[in-house]
Amino acid sequence: MKTVRILCGLFCFLVLASNVWSMSRWSEARGVYDDVCYLRQAHLFQRFGPAGFDTDISRDDDRYLAAKLKEIGFPTWSDISTAPCHTHMPAANKLVIQYPPGTGLVLALFPSGFQVVPLYAVATTIVFGFALLGISYARSTSSIFLAGGFGCLAIYLMINPAKASYSIAPTMVVCALAGWLTAKLFFSSRRHKILLTVLLGLCIGLSVNFRLPNLFLSAGYLLFLLVSFARTRNQEALLQGALFALAFLIGMAPTLLANAINAGSPFATTYSSVDVVPPEFSLGIIWHYIADMQFVLLALAIGWICWILRSHSKRSIRQVALVTAVNLLVNLAFFASHPIFTPYYTVPIAMLSLWSLLFGSLMRPAEVVDDAPLERTAKA
C-alpha cells in the first residue's frame, strides 16, 4: 500500500503543480468588479493598518480605487461615488465596501500588485496538505484511491470555480480544516471533545470573515449541539454548545468590528438590498444549480451521506453524516431561496460536507470512547 500512497500523492502533486503554473499567469485586472473591491480592502489594511477596517469611500484620497477602476475600463472610474460593490450606509452616512474584511486581510499579507497569485498558490498548497493527510489516514487500497481521487478534485477546484471570487480561496482552506475537525470531534475520546468543539466553532466563525453566507456553515453543528443538550440535560452538553457559540462569535469578530465601523452596528449588514431580500424559492434559481457543476459536488455529498447511513452502524461515522446532512439541508434551503445565482455559492457547503465525510470515512475511532454528550444523540 505504500506504493499506492506514493502514487496518489504524486498525482495530487501534479495537479498542484499544474494549478500553480496556471495561476502564475493570472492578471489582477481581469475586469471583475468584486476583484477591485477586495484589492481595495487589502490596500486599506496595508496603508492604515487596523484602521483599514473603515472602508469609507472618502479614504480613497490617493486615488487607488479610481486607478483600479480605470484599469478595468469602468465607465465612470473618475467618479468613485459610483464605484461598484459599495453600499451607502445611512446610519453612518458612508459609502462602504459591502464585503466582510477577511479576504482583504489575507490579500494584504502579500505585496501590492502581486497578491492574487500568491494567495491562491498558498491556499492550494494547504489544500494539497489536507489531501496528503487524507491519504495518510487511509488503511486500504480502495480508501487510498478514494482519498487520492478526492484530493485531486479538491486541488483542481482551487482554479475552477474558486477563481470566480477571491473569497473562495481562503474559504476552501477553512472548509478542509473544519471537515477534519468535524471528523476528529466525533472520533476522539471524551477528554478532547471540548477543545475540538472550540476549535471547530472558531474555524467556522473565521470563514464568515471571507463570505457572509458562510454564517450558515454553522447551522448543522448548532442544531446538533442543541438537540444533544435537549435530550441529555447534561452540563457538559450545555458547556459544549455554549463554547461552540462563543468561539464562533470570536472567530467572526473582524466582521462584527467592520460592521460596527461601516454600518453603525455589529449586527447591521453592509450588503445592498438585493442581497437581503426575504427568502423566496424560485424554480429558475434551483434549475441554475442543477445545471451547474456545483450540483455534481452536492450530489456526491448527498449520495455519500445516504451510503454511510445505510451501510454503517458505528455511531461516530453516523453522527458525522447526520451533522453534515443537517448542515447541507439548511444551506441548500438558503441558496435555493436566494434571488442571485453564482457558480460558487454552494461550493463552501459542498466542500465542507465532502471533507467531513472523507475524514469521517477514513478515521479510526479512539480506543477508549466515553459516553460524552455528543455521543448520546439518538441513532438514526
Give structural notes.
By secondary structure, the protein is mostly helical. It is built from 15 helices and two strands. The protein has a two-stranded antiparallel sheet with strand order 1-2. The chain starts with a helix and ends in an 18-residue tail after the last helix. The model is unreliable at 367-380 (pLDDT under 50).
Rg, alpha carbons: 21 Å
Beta-strand portion reads: under 5%
Q: What's the N-to-C terminus distance?
A: 34 Å
What best-fitting shape do the alpha-carbon axes yield? globular
Report the strand count. 2
Unreliable stretches (pLDDT < 50, length at least 5) are 367-380
Percent helix range: 55-70%
Largest sheet: 2 strands, antiparallel
In brief, what are we looking at here?
This protein is mainly α. It has 15 helices and 2 strands.
